[in-house]
User: Which sequence fits this backbone?
């Protein structure tokens, strides 16, 4: 399995730790996939404890990015969570431009956003997952039945931070986050 839904609570926690003044957070999601509503539900459940209001931004195609984000972004107390979204990942440069234009602090489910200018991501380590999948292939080739093998959740996660982007957004990333990061892009 590539994504565990409880991960969404960590995205909210990390974003709030980075920007303690956040009051409103939009969650980009594709409501037509099972992951979109499920991840949003986790975030909704945790949001009262962190004293933030959450709003779903339902995206169906790349043309939805600009109007959805423009209608949400109002000020310095707004933030964005981008969960599992193949659409946002496919059009990530355009998407990142829209988010940057509105100066939204954001956290992403995929590390590829960080290399292209996103401020922060927290996601499973894909290389570790591929290595573990190879072990399953080996077991199957040696005769084990796929139906007998347990589903495995990710065990290694990575916090990636793009300090250049954070500084452009006037964000001061706490040293506690920098110390926990697997990679910091300066």
Assistant:
């Amino acid at each position: 399995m590539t994504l565990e839904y409880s991960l969404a609570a960590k995205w909210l926690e990390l974003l709030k730790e980075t920007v303690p003044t956040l009051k409103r957070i939009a969650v980009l999601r594709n409501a037509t996939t099972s992951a979109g509503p499920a991840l949003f539900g986790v975030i909704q459940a945790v949001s009262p404890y962190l004293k933030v209001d959450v709003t779903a931004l339902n995206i169906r195609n790349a043309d939805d990015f600009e109007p959805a984000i423009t209608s949400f972004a109002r000020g310095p107390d707004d933030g964005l969570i981008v969960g599992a979204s193949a659409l946002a990942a496919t059009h990530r440069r355009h998407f990142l431009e829209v988010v940057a234009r509105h100066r939204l602090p954001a956290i992403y489910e995929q590390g590829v956003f960080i290399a292209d200018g996103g401020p922060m991501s927290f996601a499973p380590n894909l290389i570790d997952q591929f290595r573990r999948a190879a072990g399953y292939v080996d077991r199957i080739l040696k005769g084990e039945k796929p139906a007998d093998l347990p589903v495995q959740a990710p065990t290694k996660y990575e916090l990636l931070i793009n300090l250049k982007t954070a500084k452009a957004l006037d964000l001061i990333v706490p040293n506690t986050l920098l110390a926990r990061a697997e990679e910091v892009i300066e």
